[in-house]
Amino acid sequence: MRRSSGETKKKILTACVRLFLEQGYKNTSVSQIVDEAGVARGSYLNLFPTKDKILLDLTETMFGGQFGVARSIAGSKLPSVYAYAVDTAIQLTLTELNENLREIYIEAYTAPDTAEYIYVHTTAELKEIFGGNFPDYTDSDFYEMDIGTAGLMRSYMARKCDIHFPLERKISRFLTAELRVYKVPEEEQAKVLAFIQTLDIKAIATEVMYKLFAMLEMKYDFKLSMDGETEVTR
């Protein structure tokens, strides 16, 4: 009996997400995907003409509850800019903990469909957080600003940390640039950066990473092999 398109799509997504996390987005070929999923190449191409279409589903899952996690860490008593800073710091740290996550994030900020999702998803949050600094700005204005700041995020993610550019400095540099774009007063910037420095951001991001892996395993119904790149990069 012919397999339904819904079942085929689920098999493909399950195979792709696992392969992306275990061996990287770029290293995952169409041949590997169809072999792993046990589907015909034509069926795969009909549902997903490019890998970017699969990446969009993964991106929506990864970014969906991300800001809520940051809010819970920052707490309800602090202004939303603190949650924004925590969210940013977690993203940057995740890409240092795991090279395959770095690649997925970079691709998500690069591919047109996934980048558009990020812009739209982030615009409402930016307006809520920084709207007071730009009283006349519309959603379109914040959308256009996010195109630029998202590009900056991608560049920082792509630059790996080393002894000359440690993670703490990367986070500080990026947040300083972002907060200046959104006209956060210098005094408030200093308080936000000081708050981030009080956090064990690597421990927080590690916990977030494993919760993300567990969520993806549950959603896509697979079990990650924890050998190699799915482990935290020390």
Automatic annotation (TrEMBL):
Identify the stretch annotated as signal peptide in this record. none
HTH tetR-type domain location, by residue? 6-66
PROSITE patterns cross-referenced by the UniProt entry: HTH_TETR_2
Arranged from A to Z, the UniProt key words for this protein are: DNA-binding
Q: State what protein this is by name.
A: Helix-turn-helix domain-containing protein
Q: Which PANTHER family match?
A: ACREF/ENVCD OPERON REPRESSOR-RELATED, ACREF_ENVCD OPERON REPRESSOR-RELATED
Please give the DNA-binding region boundaries.
29-48
Record keyword DNA-binding present: yes
Which Pfam families does the record cross-reference, listed alphabetically?
TetR_N
Top-level taxon in the UniProt lineage: Bacteria
